[in-house]
Every structure is written in C-alpha cells, then in structure tokens.
What does this fold into?
Amino acid sequence: MISKNRRIPRLLFKPLLESKRYFNSQNFSLRVAQGKVAKVAVSVSKKVSKRAVVRNRIRRRTYSAIRKLLPNLSNNLFLLIAKPRAENVRGEKLKNELAELFKKV
It folds into this structure.
C-alpha cells in the first residue's frame, strides 16, 4: 500500500472520470487530472470479477507496483481502472506495464 496522503479520496473520483485526459494499456486505463502532489487511486469494478477476494488482490498488487514508481510521477491525480484481464498480470510484467502507462503522461 501507499501512504494515505498519496491516495485519492472517493470524492475526487467523479472529476477524474470526467477528465478528458486518459491513457490505455492492455490491462489498465489511466485517468489524469491536475493536482499539486502526485496522488493515485486504483479502481477495480465488479465487471472485472464478482469475487471481492480477486478484486482486492488486483488492487494490492497494483498499489505495490505503484509504490516503486511514485517518486518519479508528475504532480497530477491518477486514477487507474483495472480491465478484466488485469487479474493475470503479476510481478515485473505489472510494474513494466504501469511504468509504460505513466510515461505516456
């Protein structure tokens, strides 16, 4: 997990979802909005998996990979939305995919 002051509260999800800036990769969609400090949130819907165990596992793996990338991120708000195939991505492959996605910003 990343520290609480680096995560986005749910109240800011709606402006992020309405944001015009977005980028896609094979397993994630990234929404970007202006911010003073780099903050990140991960959203995994029930469309990805009906089981909470699976959704939470995807969320934990993603936050773990982001923690290593966080010092290099620009000062924006980032919302990562998992796609259904995100369950199968692990380890270095996940980290590399997220690094490429954040480089597009």
